[in-house]
Protein backbone atom coordinates (compact mmCIF):
# COMPACT_ATOMS: atom_id res chain seq x y z
CA UNK A 1 0.00 0.00 0.00
CA UNK A 2 1.45 3.35 -0.99
CA UNK A 3 1.45 5.72 1.94
CA UNK A 4 2.57 9.29 1.79
CA UNK A 5 5.66 10.14 3.71
CA UNK A 6 5.03 12.52 6.59
CA UNK A 7 5.64 15.89 5.09
CA UNK A 8 5.72 19.55 5.90
CA UNK A 9 3.06 19.85 3.21
CA UNK A 10 0.48 18.42 5.61
CA UNK A 11 -1.15 21.12 7.68
CA UNK A 12 -1.88 18.92 10.68
CA UNK A 13 -2.09 15.30 11.82
CA UNK A 14 -5.84 15.23 11.23
CA UNK A 15 -6.66 12.52 8.64
CA UNK A 16 -9.40 14.69 7.12
CA UNK A 17 -6.97 17.55 6.61
CA UNK A 18 -4.37 15.13 5.25
CA UNK A 19 -6.90 13.85 2.70
CA UNK A 20 -7.85 17.40 1.73
CA UNK A 21 -4.20 18.28 1.21
CA UNK A 22 -4.41 15.81 -1.72
CA UNK A 23 -8.00 15.99 -2.96
CA UNK A 24 -9.33 19.28 -1.55
CA UNK A 25 -10.00 21.28 -4.67
CA UNK A 26 -12.72 21.78 -7.28
CA UNK A 27 -11.22 19.48 -9.92
CA UNK A 28 -9.47 16.42 -8.52
CA UNK A 29 -12.60 14.42 -7.70
CA UNK A 30 -14.21 15.44 -11.01
CA UNK A 31 -11.22 13.96 -12.85
CA UNK A 32 -11.41 10.81 -10.74
CA UNK A 33 -15.14 10.53 -11.48
CA UNK A 34 -14.27 10.55 -15.20
CA UNK A 35 -11.58 7.90 -14.82
CA UNK A 36 -13.99 5.75 -12.76
CA UNK A 37 -16.61 6.12 -15.51
CA UNK A 38 -14.16 4.78 -18.10
CA UNK A 39 -12.67 8.00 -19.46
CA UNK A 40 -9.00 7.10 -19.42
CA UNK A 41 -7.47 9.52 -21.89
CA UNK A 42 -6.59 13.18 -21.54
CA UNK A 43 -8.89 14.15 -24.42
CA UNK A 44 -11.83 12.21 -23.01
CA UNK A 45 -11.55 13.96 -19.66
CA UNK A 46 -11.09 17.32 -21.32
CA UNK A 47 -14.31 16.78 -23.30
CA UNK A 48 -16.39 16.47 -20.09
CA UNK A 49 -19.08 19.12 -19.55
CA UNK A 50 -17.07 20.89 -16.82
CA UNK A 51 -14.59 22.17 -19.42
CA UNK A 52 -11.55 21.74 -17.25
CA UNK A 53 -8.75 24.14 -18.25
CA UNK A 54 -5.89 22.18 -19.86
CA UNK A 55 -3.22 23.50 -17.51
CA UNK A 56 -5.24 22.35 -14.51
CA UNK A 57 -5.91 18.96 -16.09
CA UNK A 58 -2.21 18.37 -16.85
CA UNK A 59 -1.17 19.50 -13.40
CA UNK A 60 -3.74 17.34 -11.59
CA UNK A 61 -3.00 14.22 -13.66
CA UNK A 62 0.70 14.58 -12.91
CA UNK A 63 0.09 15.07 -9.19
CA UNK A 64 -2.35 12.15 -9.04
CA UNK A 65 0.27 9.90 -10.66
CA UNK A 66 2.92 11.16 -8.20
CA UNK A 67 0.57 10.40 -5.29
CA UNK A 68 -0.14 6.89 -6.57
CA UNK A 69 -3.86 7.63 -7.00
CA UNK A 70 -3.78 6.94 -10.74
CA UNK A 71 -1.29 5.18 -13.03
CA UNK A 72 -0.19 6.37 -16.44
CA UNK A 73 0.61 3.82 -19.11
CA UNK A 74 1.22 3.87 -22.83
CA UNK A 75 -1.51 2.06 -24.76
CA UNK A 76 -0.16 2.91 -28.21
CA UNK A 77 3.40 3.35 -29.48
CA UNK A 78 3.20 5.33 -32.74
CA UNK A 79 2.14 7.92 -32.04
CA UNK A 80 2.71 7.47 -28.33
CA UNK A 81 -0.60 7.63 -26.44
CA UNK A 82 -1.16 7.42 -22.71
CA UNK A 83 -4.09 6.35 -20.63
CA UNK A 84 -4.79 6.73 -16.91
CA UNK A 85 -6.31 4.13 -14.63
CA UNK A 86 -7.08 4.18 -10.93
CA UNK A 87 -4.95 2.35 -8.40
CA UNK A 88 -6.41 0.80 -5.26
CA UNK A 89 -5.64 4.08 -3.49
CA UNK A 90 -7.65 5.91 -6.14
CA UNK A 91 -10.53 3.42 -6.17
CA UNK A 92 -10.75 3.80 -2.38
CA UNK A 93 -11.84 7.40 -2.95
CA UNK A 94 -15.15 6.14 -4.38
CA UNK A 95 -17.02 6.48 -1.04
CA UNK A 96 -15.96 10.13 -0.85
CA UNK A 97 -17.30 10.74 -4.36
CA UNK A 98 -20.50 8.87 -3.54
CA UNK A 99 -21.21 10.82 -0.38
CA UNK A 100 -20.41 14.17 -1.97
CA UNK A 101 -22.67 13.32 -4.93
CA UNK A 102 -25.49 12.24 -2.58
CA UNK A 103 -25.24 15.56 -0.79
CA UNK A 104 -25.21 17.42 -4.13
CA UNK A 105 -28.33 15.55 -5.23
CA UNK A 106 -30.12 16.40 -2.02
CA UNK A 107 -29.19 20.07 -1.79
CA UNK A 108 -28.48 21.44 -5.24
CA UNK A 109 -31.43 21.62 -7.60
CA UNK A 110 -31.36 20.64 -11.25
CA UNK A 111 -28.68 18.01 -10.92
CA UNK A 112 -28.70 14.93 -13.10
CA UNK A 113 -29.01 11.51 -11.49
CA UNK A 114 -25.75 9.54 -11.66
CA UNK A 115 -25.82 6.20 -13.51
CA UNK A 116 -27.26 3.24 -11.56
CA UNK A 117 -23.96 1.56 -10.80
CA UNK A 118 -22.46 4.66 -9.22
CA UNK A 119 -24.09 4.62 -5.79
CA UNK A 120 -24.10 0.82 -5.57
CA UNK A 121 -20.45 0.29 -6.51
CA UNK A 122 -17.66 -0.67 -4.12
CA UNK A 123 -14.01 0.32 -4.62
CA UNK A 124 -13.21 -3.24 -5.74
CA UNK A 125 -15.84 -3.03 -8.52
CA UNK A 126 -14.30 0.19 -9.77
CA UNK A 127 -10.84 -1.34 -9.64
CA UNK A 128 -12.05 -4.38 -11.60
CA UNK A 129 -13.51 -2.13 -14.30
CA UNK A 130 -10.23 -0.24 -14.58
CA UNK A 131 -8.33 -3.46 -15.20
CA UNK A 132 -10.88 -4.61 -17.79
CA UNK A 133 -10.69 -1.25 -19.59
CA UNK A 134 -6.92 -1.45 -19.57
CA UNK A 135 -6.79 -4.96 -21.04
CA UNK A 136 -9.31 -3.99 -23.71
CA UNK A 137 -7.19 -1.05 -24.74
CA UNK A 138 -3.81 -2.81 -24.86
CA UNK B 1 -34.89 22.23 2.90
CA UNK B 2 -32.70 24.95 1.48
CA UNK B 3 -31.73 24.16 -2.08
CA UNK B 4 -29.44 26.25 -4.19
CA UNK B 5 -30.99 27.98 -7.12
CA UNK B 6 -29.70 26.73 -10.45
CA UNK B 7 -26.85 29.03 -11.20
CA UNK B 8 -24.26 29.84 -13.79
CA UNK B 9 -21.77 29.21 -10.98
CA UNK B 10 -22.32 25.47 -11.33
CA UNK B 11 -19.97 23.91 -13.86
CA UNK B 12 -22.28 21.08 -14.85
CA UNK B 13 -25.41 19.18 -13.81
CA UNK B 14 -23.32 16.51 -12.11
CA UNK B 15 -24.23 16.35 -8.39
CA UNK B 16 -20.59 15.65 -7.45
CA UNK B 17 -19.44 18.75 -9.31
CA UNK B 18 -22.28 20.76 -7.79
CA UNK B 19 -21.17 19.69 -4.30
CA UNK B 20 -17.55 20.56 -5.07
CA UNK B 21 -18.62 24.00 -6.27
CA UNK B 22 -19.54 24.58 -2.61
CA UNK B 23 -17.14 22.44 -0.58
CA UNK B 24 -14.27 21.69 -2.99
CA UNK B 25 -11.33 23.39 -1.36
CA UNK B 26 -8.72 22.77 1.33
CA UNK B 27 -10.50 24.60 4.14
CA UNK B 28 -14.27 24.31 4.07
CA UNK B 29 -14.49 20.78 5.45
CA UNK B 30 -11.79 21.54 8.05
CA UNK B 31 -13.94 24.41 9.34
CA UNK B 32 -17.01 22.17 9.37
CA UNK B 33 -15.04 19.52 11.29
CA UNK B 34 -14.32 22.14 13.94
CA UNK B 35 -17.94 23.24 14.18
CA UNK B 36 -19.04 19.58 14.42
CA UNK B 37 -16.51 19.06 17.24
CA UNK B 38 -18.03 21.92 19.22
CA UNK B 39 -15.84 24.83 18.15
CA UNK B 40 -18.48 27.43 17.44
CA UNK B 41 -16.58 30.70 17.66
CA UNK B 42 -14.25 32.37 15.19
CA UNK B 43 -11.38 32.36 17.68
CA UNK B 44 -11.81 28.68 18.51
CA UNK B 45 -11.64 27.69 14.83
CA UNK B 46 -8.69 29.99 14.28
CA UNK B 47 -6.81 28.30 17.13
CA UNK B 48 -6.99 24.88 15.39
CA UNK B 49 -3.64 23.30 14.44
CA UNK B 50 -4.15 24.03 10.72
CA UNK B 51 -3.62 27.76 11.34
CA UNK B 52 -6.23 28.90 8.87
CA UNK B 53 -5.47 32.40 7.55
CA UNK B 54 -7.99 34.90 8.95
CA UNK B 55 -9.09 36.20 5.55
CA UNK B 56 -9.90 32.66 4.40
CA UNK B 57 -11.74 31.88 7.63
CA UNK B 58 -13.90 35.03 7.38
CA UNK B 59 -14.62 34.40 3.73
CA UNK B 60 -15.57 30.74 4.22
CA UNK B 61 -17.77 31.43 7.25
CA UNK B 62 -19.65 34.09 5.30
CA UNK B 63 -20.11 31.79 2.29
CA UNK B 64 -21.20 28.88 4.46
CA UNK B 65 -23.83 31.09 6.10
CA UNK B 66 -25.00 32.30 2.66
CA UNK B 67 -25.29 28.70 1.50
CA UNK B 68 -27.31 27.69 4.56
CA UNK B 69 -24.64 25.20 5.69
CA UNK B 70 -24.06 26.99 8.99
CA UNK B 71 -26.02 29.61 10.94
CA UNK B 72 -24.60 32.64 12.69
CA UNK B 73 -26.18 33.85 15.88
CA UNK B 74 -25.32 36.30 18.62
CA UNK B 75 -24.72 34.57 21.95
CA UNK B 76 -23.67 37.70 23.84
CA UNK B 77 -24.78 41.31 23.52
CA UNK B 78 -22.08 43.46 25.16
CA UNK B 79 -19.68 43.10 23.58
CA UNK B 80 -21.50 41.47 20.66
CA UNK B 81 -20.25 37.92 20.12
CA UNK B 82 -21.29 35.48 17.44
CA UNK B 83 -21.25 31.72 17.24
CA UNK B 84 -21.75 29.35 14.32
CA UNK B 85 -23.74 26.14 14.33
CA UNK B 86 -24.46 23.61 11.60
CA UNK B 87 -27.82 23.41 9.90
CA UNK B 88 -29.29 20.11 8.67
CA UNK B 89 -27.64 20.84 5.31
CA UNK B 90 -24.29 21.20 7.08
CA UNK B 91 -24.75 18.15 9.32
CA UNK B 92 -25.53 16.12 6.20
CA UNK B 93 -21.93 16.68 5.11
CA UNK B 94 -20.76 14.41 7.95
CA UNK B 95 -20.56 11.29 5.70
CA UNK B 96 -18.29 13.19 3.29
CA UNK B 97 -15.99 14.14 6.18
CA UNK B 98 -16.06 10.59 7.54
CA UNK B 99 -15.14 8.99 4.22
CA UNK B 100 -12.40 11.51 3.48
CA UNK B 101 -10.96 10.99 6.99
CA UNK B 102 -11.10 7.19 6.57
CA UNK B 103 -9.15 7.50 3.34
CA UNK B 104 -6.64 9.84 5.00
CA UNK B 105 -6.15 7.37 7.84
CA UNK B 106 -5.56 4.54 5.40
CA UNK B 107 -3.19 6.30 3.04
CA UNK B 108 -1.41 9.10 4.84
CA UNK B 109 1.02 8.04 7.52
CA UNK B 110 1.37 9.69 10.92
CA UNK B 111 -2.22 10.82 11.18
CA UNK B 112 -3.98 10.97 14.52
CA UNK B 113 -7.03 8.81 15.13
CA UNK B 114 -10.23 10.86 15.27
CA UNK B 115 -12.26 10.74 18.49
CA UNK B 116 -14.47 7.65 18.94
CA UNK B 117 -17.77 9.34 18.18
CA UNK B 118 -16.60 10.69 14.83
CA UNK B 119 -16.86 7.58 12.65
CA UNK B 120 -19.94 6.27 14.46
CA UNK B 121 -21.96 9.48 14.35
CA UNK B 122 -24.93 10.14 12.08
CA UNK B 123 -25.89 13.61 10.81
CA UNK B 124 -28.79 13.71 13.30
CA UNK B 125 -26.37 13.15 16.22
CA UNK B 126 -24.23 16.04 15.04
CA UNK B 127 -27.29 18.23 14.64
CA UNK B 128 -28.45 17.32 18.17
CA UNK B 129 -25.04 18.29 19.61
CA UNK B 130 -25.19 21.63 17.81
CA UNK B 131 -28.54 22.45 19.39
CA UNK B 132 -27.31 21.40 22.84
CA UNK B 133 -24.17 23.56 22.47
CA UNK B 134 -26.31 26.49 21.38
CA UNK B 135 -28.69 26.23 24.32
CA UNK B 136 -25.78 25.93 26.74
CA UNK B 137 -24.21 29.08 25.36
CA UNK B 138 -27.31 31.28 25.36
What does this protein look like?
Chain A is mainly alpha-helical. Chain A has helices at residues 15-23, 28-36, 42-46, 54-66, 88-91, 94-107, 116-120, 123-137; strands at 70-76, 81-86. Chain A has a two-stranded antiparallel sheet. In chain A, strand 1 and strand 2 (81-86) form a beta hairpin. Chain A is globular, with a radius of gyration of 15 Å. The relative contact order of chain A is 0.14. Chains A and B meet through helix 1, helix 2 and helix 6 of A and helix 1, helix 2 and helix 6 of B.
Helix-strand blueprint:
2 copies of one chain form a homodimer.
Chain A: H1 15-23, H2 28-36, H3 42-46, H4 54-66, E1 70-76, E2 81-86, H5 88-91, H6 94-107, H7 116-120, H8 123-137
Antiparallel strand pairs in A: 1-2
Q: How many whole angstroms does the radius of gyration of chain A measure?
A: 15 Å
How far is the first residue's CA from the last residue's CA of chain A?
Answer: 25 Å
Which two chains form the greatest contact, residue counts included?
A-B, 54 and 54 residues
Portion in helices of chain A: 40-55%
Q: Give the strand line-up of the largest sheet of chain A.
A: 1-2
- The share of residues in extended strands of chain A comes to 5-15%
Overall pLDDT of chain A: 92
Look at the helices and sheets of chain A and give the structural class: mainly alpha
